[in-house]
Amino acid sequence: MLKDLCLLNGTSGDETQVRDYIINEIKDYCEYSVDALGSIIAFKKGNKTPSKKVMLSAHMDEVGFIITHITDDGYLKMHPVGGIDPRVVIDRAVQIKDIKGVIGAKAVHLLSDDEKKTAPAFSKLYIDIGAKDKAEAEKYVSLGDFAYFSSDYNEFGQDFIKSKALDDRIGCMLMIELIKSDLEYDTYFCFNVQEEVGLRGASCTSYQVQSDISVVLEATTAADLCGVSGGERCCVLGNGPVVSFMDGRTVYDKSLYNLAFETAKENQIKIQTKTAVAGGNDAGAIQTSGKGSKVIAVSLPCRYIHSGASVVKKSDIEETKKLLKAFLPKLYD
After folding, report:
1. For strand 294-302 and strand 213-221, is the pairing parallel, antiparallel, or unpaired?
2. pTM of the entire predicted model
3. Catalytic: 266?
4. Which residues contact 165 (CB under 8 A, 6 or more apart)?
5. Which of 1, 109, 128, 326 is the most exposed place for a label (fewest CB within 10 A)?
6. CA 94 to CA 185: how far, in whole Å?
7. Beta strand extents in the chain (DSSP E only)
8. Of these residues, 15, 25, 62, 195, which one is catalytic?
9. What's the gap between Cα 161 and its chain centre?
10. pLDDT per residue over 37-57, tens digit each?
């Protein structure tokens, strides 16, 4: 399922393929609706109706690019959709609808000394689809079309997975599996759109659901790389799910944070925290929507996030499933 989800294209505002796939997977296991922005709000009936309303959340969209201009000689200019480092996109293969292309930049031996010292701005990059001129390019591509990293899903090394869109198709997969399982308590699930451009989908779904407690399932930045040590590593692949105390958008509920670690200890489940206050996710919108909600984020450590070659480890996925199985029933008490 994770491979299927990751290979679908669905940047912010263009999540149709992902939404259709998810609906097909969950339609026989829950009630669901699609809001005006395109997010899925699902309700799974459990064996009991709790006094507290609990919602799980993940986002369907991925980072990508949108075409803004076609040059006279047939190259496509683009703008990033979501937070993408321009250093990770040069020479990457991309796809626009069924058209293949490659992101190009000025050759290194033509750069000035000053240009060599800095990453190029997106305004200096372009997509080459092999068109001879603007007229030919316009036969295949229109302004406003989305471009995606063209990336295979590969398993390598000791249980590692490489793919685009692991952020946050992992969260979507985990929620689909929970919806298909027998749940002890009634639970809401929100598959949100447009997280990568400002948590927009979550602002709408959380306002509608009005949960008391919300669990955001995500992927988060790991920097366990050569030459990086201590707290700068942020989180580590192989050390289990990441439960954050704070990020750039959210101060997480301390009681939920402590409960997650207590639950992991009781059940001998690997768990770690994020040793940096950085980034953000849908919790930032959920926490302050409507009457407000207690929030916790449970994330998969992910190397090279927001690129065409993000990397996670299978064992972390399994540890996350164990944590959710033990942790979620405690939220309804």
Report:
1. parallel
2. 0.94
3. no
4. 5, 6, 7, 8, 10, 62, 310
5. 109
6. 43
7. 31-34, 40-44, 54-59, 64-70, 76-81, 93-96, 99-104, 126-128, 146-149, 154-156, 160-163, 187-192, 213-221, 242-243, 294-302, 310-313
8. 195
9. 15
10. 999 999 999 999 999 999 999
